[in-house]
Amino acid sequence: MSLAPQRRQLLQMTLGLLAGLSGLAPTLAEAAVTAVRLQRAERHARLTLDLSAAASWRLTAQARPARLILHLPGTAWRGPLRLAGAGPVRQARWDAPNRRLLLDLSGPVSVVRAAAQGDGLVLEVAPGTAAGFARLARGTIAQGRAGGAATASRPLPLVVIDPGHGGKDPGTIGATGTYEKRITLPAALELKRQIEAGGRCRVALTRSRDVFIPLAGRVEFARKRQATLFISLHADSAPGARGASVYTLSDRASDTFSARLAQSQNQADAKGGLHLPEVSPEVERILYSLVRQETKVGSARLAQFVVESLGESVPLLPNTHRQAAFAVLKAPDVPSVLVEMGFLSDRRDEAALKRPAHRAQVAKALALAVNGWLARHQAGLISSG
Asked: Taking a C-beta distance cutoff of 8 angstroms, is the pair 115, 32 a contact?
């Protein structure tokens, strides 16, 4: 079930209060790490910890020297004090006074996974970029509880990238015959690679090959996976238009140009599929309004990051952030933007978008925007937790 941030924060505060109260009572046994394994898995390193009881954990990073730090407050350590290296991890060692495991790295890494599993905790890291690792070092990467029956970890957020069109739907056809679907998919794959290199989130694509997916299916793909962000990539046609632009949802288009781009009409109730608790109709309307408003704010904030980042790399359409009723942006609980990387009807945009180097430049700008949004979002979650 996907909860609005206000309700998530209230739930987190309640759980935190309960956890604090339970900490005042005598405990039967202190949580302890009973076994630990550091193994190589292809280019990754996988760290597995077995726990005797539920324990809190937090993962942070340090840039100089390059290091990941797994904080285990209140947890005893019964494993070896040092572990031989694996993959990008040179060695791991237990810092007993501070109750933390230090993972010394051979270079920058990305965090592929950090989550509770069974009676323990699993951490997977892979080689990453210096810029991505520097972003990891600015805050908490992941945190939660693991071990025993009470597992409540906070996985890395999920960003869903939607390559527009595909299969029997080629999208627009450019001035020299370029199919839009053949631009959006390689651009999405490159964006996925660059976002994952930052190590701040997981990434999923609505399609990874040339297949047709209905607009509603793309939205539902993100909602079923409780995505944190949804980004739809396009390169449409519009007479006289040139440059990148970004769109967020609005029932009333900001201009006639945006209205024409948003040809797909909203034929279903925008609230369809939004799971709310059993409450009175009045309270349900309030909750739904809060969810939609928070989603709208999140979408606008992401659009702002995208405009600022793209503006440093590629030509922009005037009034770059626009609004219209795009069907693919109608998830009521997932901040969403549609990015027009350029217009295939313009020969200059078409030529640029056919070049992998230009698509990589666009992807780099979008990845910076996503990481900027996630950093601000994560800071908000931490301050409210």
From this structure: no
CA distance 1 to 117: 20
Q: Is 70 helix (H, G, I), strand (E, B) or coil?
A: strand
Adjacent-strand bridge partners of 116: 121
Which tokens belong to 220? 């539902």
Q: Could you give the CA distance from residue 184 to residue 359 in angstroms, rounded to a whole number? A: 9
Cα(211)–Cα(312) distance, rounded to whole angstroms?
33
Q: Distance (Å, rounded) from C-alpha 250 to C-alpha 230?
A: 16
Q: Calculate mean pLDDT across residues 272-291.
A: 47
The C-alpha atoms of residue 365 and residue 307 are separated, in whole angstroms, by 9
Say how far apart CA 36 and CA 267 lie, in whole Å: 53
* Alpha carbon distance 175, 16 (integer Å): 58
Spell out a b/e string for 131-151, using b for 16 or more CB atoms within 10 Å of the CB, else e: ebbebbbeebbbbbbbbeeeb
Query: pLDDT, tens digit, for every residue of 61-102?
Result: 998 899 999 999 889 999 999 999 999 999 999 999 889 999
Residue 235 has pLDDT above 80, yes or no: yes
What would the pLDDT profile of 123-156 be if each residue is shown by its tens digit? 988 888 887 788 788 778 888 888 754 444 457 8
Euclidean distance between the first and final Cα of the chain, in Å?
A: 20
Query: Of the ranges 35-49, 110-124, 174-188, 252-266, which is most confident?
Result: 174-188
Long-range contacts at 102-105 (CB < 8 A, ≥ 24 apart): 102/67, 102/68, 102/69, 103/47, 103/67, 103/68, 103/69, 103/70, 104/65, 104/66, 104/67, 105/65, 105/66, 105/67, 105/68
Give the chain's radius of gyration (CA, Å). Answer: 23
Tens digits of residue pLDDT in 302-334: 999 999 999 988 999 998 998 877 777 877 788
Query: What is the maximum alpha-carbon separation in the chain?
Result: 74
Pick the closest to residue 48 from 144, 119, 110 (CA basis).
119
Taking alpha carbons only, the member of 53, 58, 51, 56 closest to residue 27 is 53
